[in-house]
Amino acid sequence: MLKIDHLTKRYGETLAVNDLDFEVKPGVVTGFLGPNGSGKSTTMRVIIGLDRPTSGRATINGKTYDHFKAPLREVGALLDAKALDPSRSARNHLRALALANRIPMKRVDEVLEFVGVASVANKKVGGFSLGMSQRLGIAGALLGDPGILLFDEPVNGLDPEGIRWIRDFFRSLAKEGRTVFVSSHLMSEMAVSADQIIVIGRGKFITSGTVDDLTANATGTVFVRSADAPRLAQILSDAHGVVEPVNDNGLSVSGLTSDQVGDAAFAAGIPVHELTPQRASLEDVFMSLTADSLEYGHKSVDVAP
Amino acid sequence: MSDAPTLVDTTRSEFLKFRTVRASFIGVATFVFLTIGLAVLITLVIKANWSHRSITEKLAFDPVATSLVGVFFAQFAVGVMGARFITSEYASGAIRTTLAAVPRRVHLVLSKLIVLLVTFFVLSEIVVFAAFAIGQMIYRSGHLPTSSLSDSTVLRAVIMSGIYLTLLTLIGFGLGLILRTTSVTISVYVTLLLIVPIIVNFLPSNWQDHISQYLPSNLGASMLSPNLTARSLAWGSATLLLTLYTVILITGGTVLLTRRDA
After folding, report:
1. Over residues B26-45, mean pLDDT
2. Burial of B256 (0-12, 13-18, 19+ CB in 10 A)
3. Which of A68, A70, A284, B81 is deepest in the core (most CB within 10 A)?
4. How high is the pLDDT of residue B135?
5. Using a CB-CB distance cutoff of 8 angstroms, which residues of chain B are in contact with residue A96?
6. In this structure, CATH architecture of domain A2-210
7. Is B236 within the bounds of a domain?
């Protein structure tokens, strides 16, 4: 069980993480979602003891990371795939980690084989592509057969085949009863790879739940197309809908159901050529949730409510 | 999986890291070549010019110091290696992987310290004894005065020059722990050994006398010279003081490491 307990981390003037408080449960893939600079990496760095929290703490089965003598057997983490000595071979890199945590040497070749870099195990890691480095980083995370796994933006640098592989891999890890905590700034990635999602923005907790939970609370829009769009827009506005013209006689209506839009048009005698309810995508939800907390980017993000 | 890892395991890990990068071999080769190569070069030159020397020059001839002259160049090679053992990890970001595997940071420093201490003590002693032996061989072949290890002050001088190099490796490491960047660490290290003595030379002479004997380079001179000059510390005090500098730097670096974010 991974527990983030009122965690706050400040770097000088910057408040990177602001009173985060949540738990990550075993047996499922938990997505950690937020825009760039929202504090995901900082949280992960605190979990594995690289950064010291300003207040609060992160615990693994009740203990902070620095209490583990062989931490790689408890937590496997891939935070930065390029954070290794470029002049050392992949095998020697893993052997050094294994020695420090008393992990049997045969495990090194097992994980190299598993992630598919065994053929370049004796090559210097400096020559590895980002994708290969990611795979080596995953090998390092698996080395101690840990119950908790952390991955920071793991799909970066992977090709489509690699992305599919890693999704299946996360699922299988979770199925084995492990805690799998994966960060991403890509909603679409989380929607397909995570069971549970924790959303943060500007270091603060925003919401959490399953993908369905997150989209269920958001009302969708209705797309309607009519030859007499201006008049229909007026009528729908009068019915308390929020209407946005969309190209070619189309209107995007929020605040009304498709039934209400259809009835209103019929009552006014306006012919309707198309009437489609549009379910809010996870992407829309994410955008609306984090719109206020984007560190960069333009402020007038136009999103569905 | 077996029981909890100990300092032995983390030290084995650090030793593996030390010997699995080519930079270590290049560094060690440079160190060996500088110390022994310079001994050969200098002693051969002295031998070739011996007949041109005046009587007083011949009397002042020191067969021990001249054969160990490479030590003063080798001190830069070992200092850089000591520093790089930690700063290269900051440069590549590997320090984060290292600390994730060994979160007990004092353990990490101790492990690295043991690796450097053992490796460079053994290497340094081998190198200085080799340089001394080759130097004396060359002098003997030219019928120049030679020294023998059966003379206890000579034996001490040779052993001490190895210890001097070991301590300088660790001073480089301590500075690296504190400064974290390779280039900055090497600049400070070179400044300490080369530039500070020059600056001290410009101070009023009564100041000079007080300060210069405490500089690392002069402590080294005291440690490995069998014959004491007037204004220098005895070899024992010099060794203790240089060890104290080393301990202070590494302790300071360790305290910083345990407090700073990686």
Report:
1. 95
2. middle
3. B81
4. 96
5. 13-14, 16-17, 20, 101
6. 3-Layer(aba) Sandwich (3.40)
7. yes
Residue A51 near residue A12, CB atoms below 8 Å: no
Q: Are B166 and B124 in contact (CB under 8 A)?
A: yes
A221-278 classified as CATH 3.30.70: yes
Closest CA–CA distance from residue B258 to any residue of chain A (Å): 10
Biggest distance spanned by C-alpha atoms of chain B: 73
Provide CB contacts within 8 A for B29, sequence distance 6+: none
- Higher-confidence position of A106 and B207: A106
Q: Are B119 and B260 in contact (CB under 8 A)?
A: no
Q: Cα–Cα distance between A66 and B67 in angstroms, integer? A: 50
pLDDT tens column, A155-173 = 887 888 889 999 999 999 9
Domain that holds residue B117: 7-257
Query: Hey, are the CB atoms on A80 and B93 less than 8 Å from each other?
Result: yes
Q: Mind telling me how many Å the CA of B169 is from chain A's nearest CA? A: 21
Domain residue spans of chain A: 2-210, 221-278
Record the tokens describing residue B16, joined without a space: 């593996």
Neighbours of B170 (CB within 10 A): 25
- Rounded CA-CA distance A158/A292 in Å is 30
From chain A, the residues in CB contact with B4 under 8 A are: 69-70, 102
Decide if B21 and A85 are in contact by the 8 Å CB cutoff.
yes
Q: Residue A48: its chain B contacts at CB < 8 A?
A: 100, 103
A281 — pLDDT class (breaks 50, 70, 90): low
B27–chain A nearest CA distance, Å: 14
